[in-house]
Amino acid sequence: MADENFQGNQSQWPKEKPALGTGEGESPFGAPSSPKMDLRTMASDQASMKEMGGMEPRPYTPPPFPADKPAEMPKPDSNFGQMLEKNVINPPSSPSSPSTPLPPPPIPADLTKIKSKKKKSPFALIIVLVVVIGAAALGYFVVYPNFIKKPVVTPVVVIPPPAPPPAQAICGNGACEASENTASCPADCPAPPTPPPSTHSPFFKTPADATANITLAELNAAGLKQAVSFETGATPTLKEIIFKNSSGDPITFKDFAAAISPNVFNEATTGSFDTDATFFLSTNSKGTWPGIVLKLKSGVSAASAQSDISKKISENKSEAANLYLQDPGTSGDWKTGSVLGKTSQYLSFSLSGAALSYTWFDNYLLVSTNYDGAKEAAKRLGF
Question: How far apart are alpha carbons 260 and 359 in whole angstroms?
Fold first, then answer.
């Protein structure tokens, strides 16, 4: 064995070592003393164990561990208190220890922390659940809608059914319906009374020879013939007439024209002229001839009004006879002439002296039933 070899080799070492020389003429050093050394070997340890009454040492062999059952880990929580009480608080007695027991050491603070942590664990779980639920609600109601585009809802347009067509108006039923007016059905829609002008101002620059007030019991052609007599005179005269109704109020041009010639002077046409007009009677050797002077409103186009009046007079020749005080007889065709140098349209009748003309003098429209009466009225207008 190695120990025996080691011990056997020790006998071969020399017991004394020769002195070492130091050089010429020097005495050698003395041999050093051998140091005393004790070597610890396995054999010496076994001998020490026997002397102290111990057993011979042997290697530790653990018991066999069952293969089919997993090893159980020790539970520190259940055994910790017992181990502490057994080893620390009540240690085992030994022959050398004194008989007086030691005071128990204080319990470590870690035990109180462990117990307090166990009591607070349900509260911590509740806090965690509240935080998780709050985060989920925040994500669903705040974050999620910002990343998800909401669908566009197209509004539903409800189209109501078309209204039924209005009933067709019937002229003569005594009711003024929506599609009727004074011009199309005067029986159902009579013209509203026009308030008289506040003041009457004749258009003549040179006053008429006389002025007369005549009351019309009926505002129509028959009422005109009944109120004014047809006379002759050796000396021509021109008289201004102020027509009044049965109440004594002056009759406006709109009311007079709508009664004598409703198709020519309808509501649209009369709206282009002033409500005040100048009526006159021209008397000569051939009879008495009515006439009228109208004035366009300011801002109304003269060319447009002239074109409209000319067209309506030409299309309604039958109404021309309503201005005469007696039957003028048969009529010819419309012709173009002149009155004091102004272009005029006239219509001749079979009655001597009966010639209906209308002539424009700037913004004035002169309508006369006799040619000589038209010239005299134009002179008094200043032309």
Answer: 19
